[in-house]
Amino acid sequence: MPRNRSGRSVVQSAIDIKRWQQQTPTVVEARPARCPACGVASCPLGGAIRLQGHGKRERQVWGPSGPDQRPEMLTVTARRYRCVSCGAVLLVVPRGVLGRRLYSASAIGFALALWGLVLATAAEVRRRVAPAGIVGDSAVTGWTTLRRWVRDVAQRRIFAEAPDPVPRASLRQRAASAAVALAASADPTTRALPIEHRAFLGAAHAA
Ligand SMILES: [Zn+2]
Q1: How many A from CA of 84 to the centre of ligand 1?
Q2: Per-residue pLDDT at 136 exceeds 70
Q3: 2 has pLDDT over 60
Q4: Is 109 found in the same domain as 90?
Q5: pLDDT for res 173
Q6: Whether residue 120 sits in one domain with residue 90
Q7: How many domains does the chain divide into?
Q8: In sequence order, which ranges of the chain are alpha helices (DSSP H)?
Q9: 23, 19, 185: which is closest to 97 by C-alpha?
């Protein structure tokens, strides 16, 4: 179970970022069915509620909202719950928002596909994925964030379902194999779309 810096569990809702942004779900709508820490049912039939609303937290979500959209910095209001059985505090975020990461899962999947499969330069990937005005590493030497994502995928820190890359694969080959797996997990109706678009869509579910 992913944990954020303060030790709270991060749970992805079935509600996607766009719908969540239009209207923050109520405590009832966003409540997980079970406590991910102890497994207790959140609303047992005829019993008291075990996962109680515990306030809200603002979360930033970076990246484009679609493959052809301009990258942006969104803020979503995540919901917190406290389990009265085990004391765990959960943060429920929209589907496709990753614990401890500013970029959306789709933005990262898209970046892996652009770099690994479309063979875009790191600077071009950055232009399509990173919101303008982000101060960071030099576009001349590449985009450190991109390389870090590829290493994180290889170490199963994101997209843990991605297949094992070939031993001694280059970073770009690793990005490619992860992006192919993400694209394959997108809805079959998207098959006619370019592979980087499918990686964008598949990543929101694979996270
Ligand atoms: Zn619990």
Answers
A1: 7
A2: no
A3: no
A4: no
A5: 93
A6: no
A7: 2
A8: 17-22, 27-30, 105-116, 122-129, 144-154, 171-184, 195-206
A9: 19
The residue count for the chain: 207
* Cβ atoms of residues 51 and 83 within 8 Å: yes
52 C-alpha to ligand 1 centroid (Å): 11
203 Cα to the center of ligand 1, angstroms: 28
Same domain, 18 and 39: yes
- What separation in Å is there between the alpha carbon of 39 and the centre of ligand 1? 6
Going from the Cα of 139 to the center of ligand 1, the distance in angstroms, rounded, reads 45
Cα Dmax for the chain: 62
Q: What is the mean pLDDT of the chain?
A: 89
Tell me: do 114 and 197 sit in the same domain: yes
| Domain range for 66 | 9-95
Number of helices (H), then strands (E), belonging to the chain: the values are 7, 4
Q: Tens digit of pLDDT for each residue in 140-191?
A: 456 889 999 999 998 888 988 777 767 788 999 999 999 999 999 999 999 9
Q: Give me ligand 1 centre to Cα 40, in Å.
A: 6
Task: Give distance in angstroms: CA of 34 to centre of ligand 1.
Answer: 8
Question: Where among 32, 66, 95 does a domain terminate?
Answer: 95
End position of a domain, from candidates 95, 119, 136: 95
Q: Are residues 140 and 164 in the same domain?
A: yes
